Amino acid sequence: MKKMLTAAVSRVLSGVTQKPASRVLVASCKYSNNATFEIKKCDLYRLEEGPPVTTVLTREDGLKYYKMMQTIRRMELKADQLYKQKFIRGFCHLCDGQEACCVGLEAGINPTDHVITSYRAHGLCYTRGLTVRSILSELTGRRGGCAKGKGGSMHMYAKNFYGGNGIVGAQGPLGAGIALACKYKGNNEVCLTLYGDGAANQGQISEAYNMAALWNLPCIFICENNRYGMGTSVERAAASTDYYKRGNFIPGLRVDGMDILCVREATKFAADYCRSGKGPMLMELLTYRYHGHSMSDPGISYRTREEIQSVRSKSDPIMLLKDKMVNNKLASVEELKEIDAEVRKEIDDAAQFAMTDPEPPLEELGHHIYSSNPPFDIRGANQWIKFQSIS
Amino acid sequence: MAAVAASAGWLLRLRAAGADGPWRRLCGAGLPRGFLQSASAYGAAAQRRQVAHFTFQPDPEPVEYGQTQKMNLFQAVTSALDNSLAKDPTAVIFGEDVAFGGVFRCTVGLRDKYGKDRVFNTPLCEQGIVGFGIGIAVTGATAIAEIQFADYIFPAFDQIVNEAAKYRYRSGDLFNCGSLTIRSPWGCVGHGALYHSQSPEAFFAHCPGIKVVVPRSPFQAKGLLLSCIEDKNPCIFFEPKILYRAAVEQVPVEPYNIPLSQAEVIREGSDVTLVAWGTQVHVIREVAAMAQEKLGVSCEVIDLRTILPWDVDTVCKSVIKTGRLLVSHEAPLTGGFASEISSTVQMKGLKHKEV
């Protein structure tokens, strides 16, 4: 018995645990409190040194990140399901596959920092503090939604999270403006301005780069490069696909966006850089989305199923984190499975709420157009329909 | 019924109190007040979807242009583009995602037929697309640019208004970008929300130097698009996206032109003039039929077709005959094109007011 136990323990300590540990083993081994990982070196542009190549992940953080990523994944899949059941209408852009970006970015900044992004925003909504319930019911257009059911998929907002923007690239100058406010107020906050590989070709992004660099704004431009701008691959859209160099006079980093630790370290590095007053920084996150551009896009007419499968099996962010944690004894497979079950339940509850919550009343249609006292009348589709506009 | 009447418009009385039989009937004497009201009047309990209903009404098969084929709106657009590229060796089509056929399938097959030098994708940059198109047009080549949704045309607004529209004027007719045509899906579609439903024709109506055209059907679309492409002025052609699949008609295979700046009276009437463009024409047609049947009101229906420069004479002539005007459009009310039509008609109509 003792011999068996010793053998088992030594096997565990040598870090070779491919099969799920048996109950006996779980009971006998302790979790490590933290583990050190080597992470990929980032490509640098106009920078002497980059983020560190090793990082420490604590068990607590690991579990937190895992839960967050799993929640986002499940939430997006639930949104897919609700869309197909026609509870969600309109346009729905899902970010499954890009969880490491959202969670990693959040891990690298403070809740008082600011974030603005494009329409593929559900993951960031969650990491910025919105509940799954409020996100799903916003998708289904109900009262319980974070934008009172009037915004929908692309227009969700939270404290220090400015959406959720439908027009591609339009959030670039907005982000630079938020960074200007941070600098002006002197509160040591930064603004993460996210956009995609398609938006990188928009004129306004270049305008934002120039202003941010000219005035040394604490703005981190983040290009989420998921290789396809809707259906157009990056090679067919951009003269230079080195998006981290596209800031020209802005230093840049290219980061593995499927490794949450890589993203976290790079974000911390960039945030420190900006906070020290050196000006903006550009980060390119190499990531991937499993779904098509939106729910109306099957996602396979411009890429092969094999490619999607290959990314899923080799670089899935949740799988990568799970392997890291299990292999380094930060958590057991059972524990993570329990987290999965908890997450599933939370999402199911939220979806149930989202399907049964009533829609906002028709009287609210005209609200919040202007900020004004007293309330005024807005004409509806014909002169006998009037809505009161209150703000 | 309520949904049908739920279209943006307003009634304008030109005649002094007098021969108002039908008008009285319309006003509601004898009709329940709720006849023309929407469901909102019945309280929030009725959570009905407040979306305008319409039934596409195809025009009779045209006989004067040769053999016809059944086409929907996007196929008619493809046919027009096909004819243009065949006839004009300098014509090029470009925009976001046009190479594989476009997000609404308006350019399907053209790249294979005419080559990747003539049908090509641009990166995601509306301002760049239009500016680039102006450049092509200035050299004399025919540029057919696509803006993926009319909602995205605003980054290009400066290029259209300040560059394209004023090129001929500021160069004293030395240069022009008349061979530029910008095509864009337009109008509400039911699930488009803020950024896939806009109807920005009123913004461009405020800009002399360009032409703005909105077809109501596949037959109209092909003829008007071909006219826009051949017109020696920069044109914006808005295609009602909800009609892309819903509108099916017999459309001539050969090229043909429908003149710009000519409105079409598609139903003769004597009591009230109804003016609309794009999808609303079908709503208005249905309203006219219902008004005749239920109220005995004879409506004259006019499809404006070209928003800028618009056919003032046809509309005014009609209003002088009927004495009443209703304009229906999808865009916001304030500053919408209906205000331009109504004020012009009122100004011209005053001369004809019976004393």
Give an account of the 3D structure.
The complex is a heterodimer of chains A (391) and B (355). Helices cover 41% and strands 13% of the residues of chain A. Chain A is built from 13 helices and twelve strands. Chain A has helices spanning 2-13, 23-28, 59-84, 99-108, 122-127, 132-139, 171-185, 203-214, 234-237, 260-275, 305-315, 317-327, 333-356; strands spanning 34-38, 43-45, 54-58, 114-116, 191-196, 219-225, 228-229, 232-233, 252-256, 281-286, 376-379, 386-389. In chain A, the strands form four sheets. In chain A, strands 2-9-10-6-5-4 form a six-stranded mixed beta sheet, with helices on both faces. A two-stranded antiparallel ribbon of chain A has the order 1-3. In chain A, 49% of the residues are buried. Chain B has 355 residues and is an alpha/beta fold. In chain B, the strands form three sheets. Chain B has a seven-stranded mixed beta sheet, sandwiched between helices. Chains A and B meet through loops of A and strand 1 of B.
What order do the strands of the largest sheet of chain A run in, or round the barrel if closed?
A: 2-9-10-6-5-4
Strand arrangement within the widest β-sheet of chain B reads 4-3-5-6-8-7-13
Content-based structural category of chain A: alpha/beta
Largest interface: A-B, 38 and 36 residues
Shape descriptor of chain B: globular
Instruction: Write down the secondary-structure element order of chain B.
Output: HEHEHEHEHEHHEHEHEHEEEHEEHEH
In terms of DSSP E residues, the strand content of chain A is: 5-15%
**Separation, N- and C-terminal Cα atoms of chain A:** 73 Å
Low-confidence stretches of chain B: 1-47
The coarse overall form of chain A would be globular
